[in-house]
Prior knowledge:
- The complex is a heterodimer.
- By secondary structure, chain A is mainly alpha-helical.
- Chain A is globular, with a radius of gyration of 13 Å.
- In chain A, strands 1-3-2 form a 3-stranded antiparallel beta sheet.
- By secondary structure, chain B is α+β, with helices and mostly antiparallel strands.
- In chain B, 53% of the residues lie in helices and 18% in strands.
- Chain B is built from 15 helices and 10 strands.
- The longest helix of chain B is centred in the first third of the chain and has 20 residues.
- Chain B is elongated and about 75 Å long.
- The mean pLDDT of chain B is 84.
- At the A-B interface, helix 2 and helix 3 of A face helix 8 and helix 9 of B.
Amino acid sequence: MSRQRSMENILASEYVSIGELVRITNSRYSTLKHYTEEGMLPFEQAEENLTRRYKREETVARFLWIKELKANGLTIPQIKEALE
Amino acid sequence: MTDLKLAPSFSLIALNAQRSLHMTTVKRVSLRCMAAAVILELYLEGCFTQSENKLTLRKEALEQSHSTLYRETVLQPVLHKSAEVKGDLNWWLKKASMLSNKQLKKFEAAISDDLKAMNLLDDIPSLLGSDMFFESAEVEIRVYRSNIEAYTSITENIRAEILEEGPVTDEVICMLWLLRECGCMHDFFSLNELERVNIKLHDLYQSNLWAKALFPTQIRHGIELGVKRFLVLKSKFAKTFIGSSINYLFPALERSQAVFIETEAWFDNSDKRLDAVITRLNSYGHEVKVIKRGSIATLKIDNLLYDALPHFVVMNVPIQGVRLVPKHPL
């Protein structure tokens, strides 16, 4: 049996899954998935089960930055440019 | 970002937008599943002792495990006066889901009080109560409103785990089973996603022991679920173009979907009319945010989006107002 990690454990770990990222950023899964597919949120892929793992601190900071740029009225292509 | 246990987090989803003062069929279906969630929560916390296929619950184990009132309201009728009760998972889930109306009401009060204490659930006047005809009849209708952030966090976490490659946790397996038994799968997944969910559920059943034990269990009550499905279909039909037109002309067919709010004066300006309606809704205790202004405005009222269509009804004199037609869920 595999249990869900507590928020305390998630906030202490280096890597998080997309589900955990949803929990800590209070965002929608579809949003994170879209950003990932657009290459805006880098991830590593564990070989054995193809699970995407995100570096927690970096990804959360990047997500907040994207959110801020979006609030300033930038479109996704413009945000992608700004991130590069 | 609170860590909720299984039963409270499922209840937060199940109680949202349900009537708080009346026992509707849809709410009874939700309450039965919420009671089953309490058993699953205890199981995940290891409160049962397992021998072969049987799960034993002792009264002492319950006392040691920081028992809360909502757990007691479900377990007391099952344990009754015995010091321990034994049964397989299927038996426990069925027993919890078959509580009487009185016991379900007690359980609902306990768990909703818990969620209210955490500021995750409100008890607000129903929008239907602001309808001119209901208001004049002095019928009081109140509904639960879940904290939108917590609600989204729970539902999106389920979606992320099941729609993504990789392992699925036991909590999410329980949630999926509860959503299935509650008849709510369609509320959280689109038709395309449901196909993927079905494949994933099948894979889980083949590969995961916990899913293999849980998925064959059914606690649904055919008639209640049938009524619920009919009501859901009726609401869905009311959202189609033909449905909303029929609903607009004959709101009695789907009352909760076409609420009429009258204005106190006859306005020729749509902005003024909208402001009068917002003032009226605020006075009834609703949170209203204007998403889009114009002749047909879009309003967010207590977590739900509505189209506000100008309308009038003819009584002894014509009464001007706005017909609120829901646009999207949450």
